[in-house]
Design a protein that fits this description.
It is a single chain. The chain is of the alpha+beta class. The C terminus is likely disordered. The protein has 13 helices and 19 strands. The longest helix is centred in the first third of the chain and has 24 residues. β1, α2 and β2 form a beta-alpha-beta unit.
Length: 422
């Protein structure tokens, strides 16, 4: 079994990029070569601004290349929850932005001919508990009435039409989502940015940031970039580059396993219509068919670096959903970090020192991050300062942020208890 991710193992050929050596000057320096950073670079270059992207590993090494490959509409809170919190009109606007993010990803893939196995599959949210299904019915009725597109409620006795399992109490089908190969997408996006003149340096970890006389200087081990503006696009991998991000983003873990290649007949039986699936448990298990005929199944404990036991739990969860896969070999397994905020809602904006940032996608960044990169580009060039609700949200520090391990451990125990209770 490989600990290399399925996406890395099946990716298009990787372009080798240089390490930053010596001093460089540019208009905007961007830290992080994931969806957000590369999208910001691409859109800035198209507006005539020169950019340099610094990545501590390689393009797409973080969450952008390690996720489940699901382009989903929406946010961590449901549309009903968003409307209850901020009103129906703003919930509609947020929904439109979410759908715009899907359209943007599809447009970029088509414009730059990015080979990333994009497919409009739709998805089904599966009810982990019976009471979750009751909430789904209300959500579907509300969305269908107010938001202009149709979701479909699937009763428990109809679930066999979309998933060959008795594990769930019903579901909500949404036709608007896509599956894709995330690492191939971000690599293709990087080449698109470079075609417009962007410079991307890999293995160039940022060690320090200084501001002086209206400029920002970003230092790596072997070089320095001087720029007019700085964008931090590091999300869960921010570490201690900037205190506000370090205190305001909690990095939680998600594990994914990919089975051996399965017969077409098995895949058709397990997922009759090819939907992507995620459930409503607090640990949020999610699974899909992969382009090379496997089942990728992810989720599990949010505590990072648990090793073998965490993957065993994900495998056991897969067997509970699909008992017939018991004994099935796992060919790939990998993990990654997800950035969450206290409000469980993404944030973008500008820090007091002038640094632009976007973070806290809470597991919904596959499409949103590309849009946020575009919004940041518009913000930097002062084309638009309307950051919608995302810009109005404050990056609130987590209590005891210096003890994040303890916080995550407590959250893990709490979520386990909630899933266990009826």
């Amino acid at each position: 079994m490989s600990t290399l991710s399925l996406w890395a193992a099946t990716a298009n050929p990787k372009k080798n990029r240089p390490v930053l050596m010596g001093d460089e000057n540019t208009d905007v320096v961007i830290v992080g070569a994931g969806f957000t950073g590369i999208s910001a670079s691409l859109h800035l270059q198209k507006k005539g601004y020169n950019t340099i992207v610094l990545e501590q590993e390689t393009v797409g090494w973080g969450a952008s290349g390690r996720n489940g490959g699901m382009l989903l509409p929406g946010y961590k809170p449901t549309l009903v929850e968003l409307a209850d919190k901020w009103g129906l009109d703003e919930a509609k606007q947020l929904n439109e932005l979410s759908l715009e993010s899907l359209q943007l990803v599809e447009q970029l893939i088509n414009d730059y001919q990015i080979d990333c196995s994009l497919q409009k599959t739709g998805h089904v949210v599966s009810a982990f508990k019976a009471k979750h299904f009751e909430g789904m019915k209300k959500e579907s009725e509300y969305v269908n009435k107010h938001f202009g597109y149709e979701t479909k409620i699937i009763e428990k006795n109809q679930m066999g039409e979309v998933i060959h399992s008795t594990a769930y109490h019903g579901g909500l089908e949404d036709p608007l989502s896509y599956s894709f190969h995330p690492l191939n997408y971000v690599r293709g996006l990087a080449e698109a940015a470079e075609s417009h003149g962007a410079k991307i340096y890999e293995k160039s970890k940022v060690l320090n940031v200084k501001r002086d006389s209206g400029f920002v200087e970003v230092f790596t081990e072997s070089g320095k970039v001087k720029a007019k503006e700085l964008i931090l696009a590091t999300d869960a991998y921010s570490e201690k580059i900037m205190k506000p991000l370090h205190r305001g983003i909690l990095s939680i873990s998600s594990q994914i396993i990919a089975t051996e290649i399965l017969p077409e007949s098995t895949l058709k039986r397990l997922l009759p219509k090819g939907h992507m699936i995620f459930d409503t448990s607090n640990f949020l298990y999610y699974f899909r068919r992969t382009p090379d005929s496997r089942i990728a199944f992810g989720g599990g404990d949010i505590i990072p670096n648990r090793g073998e036991s965490a993957y065993n739990e994900v495998y056991d969860a897969m067997i509970k959903v699909y008992p017939e896969l018991k004994g099935c070999k796992v060919s790939y397994r990998w993990d990654g970090l997800i950035g969450v905020t206290r409000d469980m809602f993404p944030v973008l904006g500008r820090m007091e020192d002038g640094t632009f940032f976007a973070a806290g996608y809470c597991g919904h960044g596959a499409s949103l991050a590309t849009l946020f990169g575009k919004l940041l580009a518009q913000y930097v060039v002062k084309e638009s300062e309307d950051m919608y609700r995302f810009g109005e949200m404050k990056l609130k520090p987590f209590p005891f942020s210096s003890q994040k391990g303890l916080l995550i451990n407590l959250a893990s125990k709490y979520h386990r208890l909630l899933d266990w209770l009826a």
